Amino acid sequence: MTSISLLSELECPVCLLPPRQAPVFMCPLGHNICSECKPLVKKCPICKINYLQNKDTRNFFAEKILDSLERKCRYELFDCDFSICDSQQLVDHEKICDKKPELNKNTQKPENEDSDGENVEEVVNENNDPMFLNLVYFYDIRPMFQFYAYTVVFLRMFVFEFSDLNRHPGIWFEVTFLSCLCIWLLARRTKLVQFFLEVYQPDEFETQFQVLRKHLRHILFQDAKEVYLALVLWAAFVISCLLYLKLELIQSANYEIEVARFEALLFFMKPALTFSTSIVCIVWHLYFKWGKLDKWAAVFGVFRLLWLSFNLAYVELSLNAGTLIDEGYCLIFWIQTVSVLLPFGKVSFILLELFGFLTMTYNAYDTLFLFGIGKNDFLEHFQKAFNGNYLKMQFMLRDLRGSLKLLENSLSSVSVTEPLDLDVAKEVKQFFEKYRTEF
Fold first, then answer.
1. Calpha distance 230→348 (Å, rounded)
2. Which tens digit of pLDDT belongs to each residue from 245-291?
3. What is the dihedral of CA 58, 62, 65, 68, to 10 degrees?
4. Dihedral, CA of residue 49, residue 52, residue 56 and residue 62, to nearest 10
5. Which among 106, 111, 119, 113 has a CA at the least distance from the CA of 40?
6. Rounded to 5 degrees, what angle do the CA atoms 216, 347, 324 make?
7. How far is CA 268 from CA 124, 245, 379, in A?
8. HEC states along 5-37?
9. CA angle 429, 433, 437 (to 5 degrees)
10. Neighbours of 88 (CB within 10 A)
11. Residue 413 to residues 400, 408, 431: CA-CA distances in angstroms?
C-alpha cells in the first residue's frame, strides 16, 4: 500500500485531512477522527454513534505510523508546497504558514456544543482553519476523451462546411476566423480579460471566499487549461491547411483540374484529421500527466482512443459513403452544442463511439455480404491527389473522347449525303472502334 493510500485511509471525516499529530481518536466502531475535530463533535460523522464520554478511545497504530508518512501543509490549495513527516514541525509550520488565508475574522464558535457532526463545515478550529477538501490526487483519463471529441467534431464540421466550393468559394470567413483566434489568444493573457472572466464567468462557487473561489475554479478548469492552447493551435493549423488549399485553387490557371485535385486531397485529409487529432490529444495529455499516470488506466485509455480514431479513419477511406460520414460529424457537433450546458451534457464522445460502431458494422456487412460494392477506389483517389500528370492525362483523354465523338458524328452526317467507298467506310469504322475502346 502506498503512502498516498495510507493517508487517505487515515484522513479525518470532519476536516478531510490526515491527522496533524497524535493523539488520533476513534469511535466505538473504529472510525478515525483527529484531535483537532474530536472536541467539536459528540457523534461519529460516519456511523452517528456517540463517542465515549468518560474515556476517549485512541488508535495507537495510526499514531505510530503517522510520523513515517509525509504529509503536506493543509494550505496546499493556496499554493503552499511544504511537506514533512515530523508531526510537530508540520503543526508549527501551519500556525505560521504565509499562505494561510484569514477566514475566521468574523467567525464565532458555535454556542451549541452538542454538535452531531452533520454540520461540521460551520465549525472553526481555534489554532488552524481546516480546509474541507480532499486533496488526494485522482488520475482520470476521461477528460482526454471529451477534448478529443469536442475538437474532432468541430474540425470535421468546419472542413465539411467550408470545403464546399459551391457555398463558400472564397476565403474571407477562414481568414476572419483565424484573425479572431489570434486576437483571442493574445487578449486572454491580459489582466483585463482575466479579470472579466473571473467576475462574469459563471460557476458554482459564488458564495465562497474570493481566494478559495479562485483555487476551486483552478481545480475545476485545470484539465481544460492544460490542453486548451495545444488544441486551439491544432485547430488553427488545420484551418490554415484548408485555407492554403483554397488559395492554390483560386490562383490556379486550370481551375477544373485543381478542383478535382482539391476534392481528392480532401478524401485523404478528413480521415487523417480524425486520426491525427487523437495523436495530438494523447501526446499533450501524457506531457502534462507524465508524473501522475496510473499506468494501466493510461494504457487502456490510449488504446481505446487510438482504436476509435483509427477505425473511423479506416472506414472513411474504405467506404464510398458520399457525405453521410461528414453529416454524421455535423449532427454530433450540433447535439453537443445544444446539450453542453445541461446536466450530464458531455455526450460527444459517447455519440462518437456509437457513430464509430455503426460505421464499422456497416463496413463489415458490406465486406461479408455485399462483396465490397460500396468500397472506394483508393488508388484512383491517390493518383488524383498526389500525381499531377495523372489528372492532366485524364482530362486530355476526356477531351480526346469528345473530339472523337464529334468527328464520328460529322463523318456520319457526310456519309448520308455523299456515301463513302465501302473500303474507306470500313477503315473509318475500325479506327473509331479501336480508339473508343482504348480511351
1. 20
2. 999 888 888 888 888 889 999 999 999 999 999 999 999 988 888 87
3. -110
4. -20
5. 113
6. 145
7. 63, 13, 12
8. HHHHHHCCCCCCCCCCCCCEEECCCCCEEECCC
9. 170
10. 12
11. 20, 9, 17
- Specify the pTM: 0.64
Amino acid in the structure at residue 138 = F
d(CA 32, CA 30): 6
What would the DSSP string read from start to end of 73-84?
A: -TTGGGT---EE
The predicted-structure confidence for 166-176, as pLDDT tens digits, reads as follows: 888 889 999 99
Q: Write down the number of H helices and E strands in the chain.
A: 15, 4
What is the structure's pLDDT at 105? 43
* 154 CB burial (10 A radius; 0-12, 13-18, 19+): buried
Closest CA to 269 of 387, 364, 160: 160
Beta strand pairing call for 24-26 and 32-34: antiparallel
The cell for 425 is 467506310
Q: Determine how many CB atoms are found less than 10 A away from the CB of residue 79.
A: 9
Helix (H) or strand (E) holding 71: strand 71-72
Buried b (16+ CB within 10 A) or exposed e, 244-261: ebbeebeeeeeeebbebb
> What is the residue-wise DSSP string for 158-223?
HHHHHT-TTT--SSHHHHHHHHHHHHHHHHTTSHHHHHHHHHHS--S-TTS-HHHHHHHHHHHTHH
pLDDT digits (tens, 9 = 90+) for 55-72: 788 888 888 888 888 888
**CA 204 to centroid of chain Cα atoms:** 23
Which 3 state secondary structure label does DSSP give 426? helix
CA 44 → CA 47, 105, 371, distances in Å?
6, 28, 69
Q: Quick check: 261 and 268 in contact, CB under 8 A?
A: no
